[in-house]
Each structure stands twice: as C-alpha cells, then as structure tokens.
Design brief:
This protein has about 700 residues and is an alpha+beta fold. It has 21 helices and 19 strands. The strands form 6 sheets. Strands 4, 5, 6, 7, 8, 9 and 10 form a 7-stranded antiparallel beta sheet that branches. Strands 3-2-11 form a 3-stranded antiparallel beta sheet. It has a 3-stranded mixed beta sheet with strand order 16-17-19, covered by helices on one side. The longest helix is centred in the last third of the chain and has 25 residues. The chain is extended, with a radius of gyration of 36 Å.
C-alpha cells in the first residue's frame, strides 16, 4: 500500500486516539501531575507505526530472514507456517537443511571487520588542527571504551540479514559520574525495541516526526521507580483489568457504552480492546513504557535590510515590527521555524506522562540520539541479502531431502515371494549366513525387486544444484568476487577484474555502513563535549599508540569565547602547561570547524592505506620525503614513536619545516663555556625532562 493510500487510515487512527478525550460528568479528579496530551499523541503514533505496511510487513519478514540465516527448521517456514516440516518429521522422512545463505553473509561481515576504521576529526581551517587532533584522540578513547567497532559490526551483520538495525548513543548518570554522566552506546532491534515515523525519507532519520523506544514493565517495577504515582497507577491498572474482564464476558456491562471503570479512573473510555492490548498485558500486569523523541518548532525572527544586506536577529515578532516601522521601505521581516528535538516518557495504557519536553543533550538538541543502518529500502519495503535467497533455499532443501528419502527407502533390493510359498515368512528378515529359506516350488521361488529410482533421484539432485548456483548468483557476494579466493586458470588481470566486480556489487552495503559510522561519530563527538565540562586529566592514545596525558578544561582557560592558537600557547606557558595546548572548541565547532573522517584501524585497513602511500611515493619521487612520516605511522613496527622522531630529525624541513639537527661527534672537544663533556670522554647520558627539573608537558583541552 503506498503512503498516500495509507494516509486516511493513519488519520482515522489518530482521530480515534484524540476522540478519547471526552470527560464524563461527576467523575473524580485524576492525578493533577498527569498531562495526557502527549500520551494521546504517543498512542496515535504507536498505532500508526505498527499498522503501516512498512512496519507491519517488515517485522514478520525480518524474523523469517533471521531463521533462514540460522538454518535448520527455520529454513522450512513460510509466513510463520512450519506445517510441511512437521508432517515430514512425523512420518520419519528425510529432512535436510543445507545452509547456503550463511556463507555470503559471513563473508560480508568478515570483510567489514577486517577493514574497520577509526573515527577521526579533520579540520577545515589551519587554526583547528590541534583541536581536531585532540577530538580524534577522544573519539578513539570513547570508541575503544564502548567497543563501538564491535557494535558497528553487529549492526552491519544484522542489517544485512533483516534489512536494518539501529543503535542509540546516549549518556547515563551513574554513582561515579552523577553530574556529567558517562557516554553509552547500545544496539536496539527495530520493531522490538524501536519504532519511528514510517513516512521518513532521510537516511539519518532526522525528518522523522517521532521515534519511539519502548519496553514492557511490571506494575510493581513502575511503582518502585515512580513512587509518587503509586496510587494513581494502581487505580488505573485495576480499572484496566475490569475493562479486559468485561470484554471477555467476565463482568457486567460493556466499556463500549462509556460506563466502564477505566473511563471512571482515567476519563478515557476504551474504544478498541485489541488496540489497548498493544499497551497493557492483563495476564502479567505489564504496561508498555515508551521513551518518545519528537519535534517541536520555535519561531525565529530577523529583519533584513535590502540596501546593505545587514540582518538583525530579534526574539519576538513585536521587536521585529518595531524595527521595520523605522524604515518600512528598506526593511523586511523574515520568519523561520527552528526545529528542536525533545524527549518524554509515557505510559500509554494509563495516559501517564512521566517526563515531557526534556533536553537530555543540550548541545545536540536538533538531532535524534539514534542511528540506523539500512541494507536496502525501496518505497515501503526494507530488506537484506536473505530476502531473495529464501525461495531457492527452500527449493533446494526440499529437493535434496526428497532425493535422499527416495534413495534411502527404495534403492535397496527387496525380496518378493508368492503368497504361501514360505513356511516361515520371518526368515526374510534373518540375514545371517546359516539361515535357510524353505519355499514351496509349486507356488514359485523368491525373487528380488529393486525400483528404478536413480533417474528420479538424479533429477532432484540436479534441481537442488541449480538452486545452489542461484543462491550464489542472486546476492553476488562470494569469495572469488571479493578477491579472497584464487580460482585456477584465471590470470592476474582477470582475477583483479572479478574482484572489482564483486566490490561494485557490495558497494551499496559498505557505503551505507560508512554513512552510519559518520552519524555515530557525530553523535559521539557531541556526547564527548557534553560530558567533558569539568577540570580533569585523562590519558588518551595518540596516532602512534602512545599514552598522552591531556589536561581537560583547566581553570585558567576562559569558559566562553574562541581563542587563537597563539593566545592559547601564551596562557599555557603562563600556567606551566604545554606550549602547544590542544583545545576542544565550543559545540558549534563540529558543524563549522571540524569534519569527521575515518582512519584505518585494523591491520588489513592500515596495510591497504600503507600500500597506497608507497605507490604514490614510487610514482612521484619528488614528493616522497613528505610522505615518510605518514608511511611510518601506518606501519606496525616496535618503537614506532622513536623511529618517527628520528625520521623527522633527519628529514628536517621536508617534513617539519625546520632545519635538520646536525649530527654531533661525541669525541669532539666542547666549546668554551658550553658545559659539555671534555674531549676524549664519552658523553653523559641525557636525563628526562622531569628528572632535569622541567615541568611535565601536558596537552590542554578547553571547555566543551
């Protein structure tokens, strides 16, 4: 059903939800802290989503896709029906599941894991180089702490199977960090933990009207979490139980008349018991709890001068009108809707709104905290690699099982005996060497019968092989095409072309996971800025794998405003910090000053990047010296940091812009007054800076 055709259905669902607002006269007042307008919207949004073809069709299909990936009994189902499998099992027939679906999906997952990349911030301006480098270190630290790469790989694998997967980048306030909180990252199953606006279009989900994260909770758990609402919650659940009993015929009256206990308590009569079952489980006394993220809009006004191009921003329309009255001929009013994202917590069954208009992420209140990975979406259909491989897999399983069944039951010769010819028919089942078969010659002697099943079984096996080949061609993902397996008889050029073909086929999936990773990095960078607001010293890992201490938000650094690199160095020197202080900018820096990029993480990814740089150096020798330090950074060798320092000292201006350090002869006599070692004696070992009395060099990160 196209979206336009579903629109009237959605409107009717929403209209029915809003129609539940009628108040019955003489009813007692409900909890004054409960504001049910958001609850009504959430109920309407939830019903809209689960009844839309996009979600209604995808959820059972995705579950079946997963069963086909797992294999076994799951590969014999169709639309949740396993009747054929159960009948064969009851009759003792052969049931085989030759899983050809798992291999290409595991190949895709393995290829992605072998080519993982780190999140990295890249500056847009030269003054932001140190800021971007520090943010890259923070991203690497958070990524490793949260095992974000493993989460990304799990999203990629699940999304390739079912068509999509999702994650939430949030903040949890724990006992150890009750003020700033800790960054969290968790996977959520679409359709099971998460629903969103089925009419969305953007990959980033930013055009969704709403996103609903939900879970079931027992009444006692909710009372423990919200003790202030205990009385009202228990009264509402008691009324709900009465309504469900009346619909089952266990009580008197009908809620359809409006004279029901549920309407008495909550003033919202139940219109549809089936819809109500989406929010309340009467048997277990469980209620659906929804964390809803939705959009709100604020009007922004500005006055534009058509002669000078100057724009003046004001808070209200009255201020704008007052400015325009001064020069109405040249001043124009501009009104713009500013979109913000807010969060609330709702119990739809009882119309309780526990939280509303919350801003959990003040520096990121224009974006949802959720990111998703999609394998492929066409109109209202979302699907993965498995979807179009299921029919060939079903057909192969049935054909090869049938062939094995025929050969097992009919390929062995069976004795035939005329009726009454044997004195003891049981002798046919005795296969010992000394057994004697006594028969009546007049009635005929025993013979053998072997049905000709060879051709029939061969036909089944041939069809099964044909379907196996189809399953290789349908997804286009196999080891030969990805270049992970060499095929005999192919030249190097032919193999390279096949590898290129395989990579092109899988480009869409890898491009989508790259988009997901970028969105995840943006959310992660915002969370880093939000939790990093107090003075602290943290150990971060730099590009060479070294542990670097970073002073975060020092008290001597201004809390607001953007300083130049020279001003930061001056302040750092005044307070004994690193002259090259590294500062995290204000939240807007991620939008204007820093672009999030990727850096090779796994040995395979680093090897590919290293090979590309080496080829550039070979092809263009004049620029090779400028690449030496980057080439060394990508190599996995011991003491890489020390080696890189030696290369920089040796190459000098070709890398750092400074003259190379001249080699010194340890046997040469020192100059007068230099304090050096006398000629003919070995030089004294150099002391570390800390041992020599120098202040430790600690990079500095400024306020987020």
């Amino acid at each position: 059903m196209p979206p336009d055709a579903f629109a009237p259905v959605a409107d009717s669902i929403l209209a029915e939800a809003f129609a539940a607002l009628g108040e019955a006269p003489g009813q007692p007042e409900v909890d004054p802290n409960v504001r049910d307008d958001l609850a009504i919207r959430v109920r309407g949004w939830f019903l809209e989503a689960i009844n839309h073809p996009l979600w209604k069709d995808w959820m059972p299909a995705a579950e079946e896709d997963m069963q086909f990936y797992i294999g076994g009994r799951g590969q014999w189902g169709r639309d949740g029906n396993y009747e054929g499998y159960e009948k064969l099992k009851a009759k003792g027939r052969a049931i085989l599941s030759i899983n050809h679906i798992q291999a290409p999906l595991d190949l895709m997952s393995g290829y992605q894991r072998a080519n993982r990349v780190d999140m990295k911030a890249v500056p847009q301006g030269g003054e932001d180089v140190e800021d971007a480098r520090t943010m890259s270190w923070f991203l690497k630290y958070a990524q490793d702490k949260l095992e974000l790469q493993d989460l990304e790989s799990e999203m990629f694998e699940e999304g390739n199977i079912t068509g999509m997967d999702a994650a939430k980048i949030g903040i949890e306030y724990t006992g150890e960090r009750p003020t700033n909180g800790e960054i969290t990252a968790e996977r959520l199953r679409p359709g099971h933990d998460l629903l969103w606006d089925p009419f969305w279009r953007k990959y980033s989900l930013q055009d969704c009207r709403y996103i609903l994260e939900f879970k079931w909770a027992f009444l006692e758990d909710l009372v423990a979490e919200y003790p202030d609402h205990e009385a009202d919650l228990r009264a509402a659940v008691g009324a709900l139980d009465a309504v469900f009993r009346s619909f089952r015929g266990e009580g008197k009256g009908s809620s359809r008349t409006g004279a029901d206990n549920y309407g008495y308590v909550r003033q919202h009569p139940v219109q549809d018991i089936q819809a109500e079952a989406n929010f309340y489980n009467a048997g277990e006394q469980q209620l659906l709890v929804v964390e809803v993220w939705y959009q709100v809009y604020y009007a922004k006004y500005s006055v534009f001068d058509v002669t000078t191009g100057k724009v003046t921003f004001v808070d209200t329309k009255a201020e704008a009108d007052a400015l325009i009255q001064g020069d109405p001929e040249h001043l124009q009013l501009h009104r713009q809707e500013q979109r913000k994202v807010r969060m609330g917590t709702v119990i739809p069954a009882t119309y309780h709104v526990m939280e509303e208009d919350k801003k959990p992420f003040p520096n990121d209140d224009e974006s949802y905290p959720y990111v998703a990975y999609f394998y492929k979406r066409k109109r209202n259909t979302i699907y993965g690699l498995v979807r179009n491989m299921k029919d060939p897999q079903r057909f192969e399983n049935k054909r090869i099982s049938n062939a094995m069944d025929l050969m097992q039951n009919y390929s062995n010769p069976r004795r035939t005996v005329p009726k009454g010819a044997l004195r003891d028919p049981q002798i046919l089942s005795d296969l010992s060497d000394d057994s004697v078969i006594v028969y009546d010659k007049e009635k005929g002697e025993p013979g053998f019968y072997a049905p000709n099943v060879t051709d029939l079984a061969a036909a089944h096996l041939e069809l099964a092989t044909y379907m196996k080949q189809n399953m290789r061609e349908i997804p286009g993902i196999n080891a030969e095409l990805l270049g992970d397996k060499q095929e005999a008889g192919l030249s190097g050029v032919a193999m390279a072309r096949r590898q290129q073909q395989g990579q092109i086929i899988s480009t869409g999936a890898f491009d989508h996971i790259r988009r997901t990773r970028k969105l995840m990095a943006q959310r992660m960078a915002r969370r880093i800025q939000q939790v990093s607001t107090v003075e602290d010293q943290v150990l971060l890992t730099n590009d060479l794998g070294e542990q670097v201490p970073v002073l975060l938000n020092p008290s001597w650094l201004p809390k607001v405003g953007k300083l130049s690199a020279e001003e930061i160095r001056r302040l750092a020197q005044e307070h004994g910090a690193d002259a090259k202080a590294r500062v995290l900018r204000d939240p807007s820096s991620l939008k204007y000053d820093i672009v999030l990029d990727e850096a090779p993480s796994t040995p395979t990814a680093r090897a590919a990047a290293l090979f590309a740089l080496v080829e550039i150096a070979r092809s263009f020798p004049p620029i090779a010296p400028a690449l030496y330090d980057y080439i060394l950074e990508l190599t996995d060798v011991p003491h890489k940091a020390e080696l890189l320092q030696r290369v920089k000292r040796l190459m000098g201006p070709q890398i750092t812009g400074e003259p190379p350090t001249p080699p010194q002869n340890p046997l040469a006599a020192p100059e007068a007054g230099s304090g050096g070692t006398p000629a003919g004696q070995p030089p004294a070992p150099a002391l570390p800076a800390s041992a020599a009395g120098a202040a430790p060099q600690v990079p500095v990160a400024g306020p987020a």
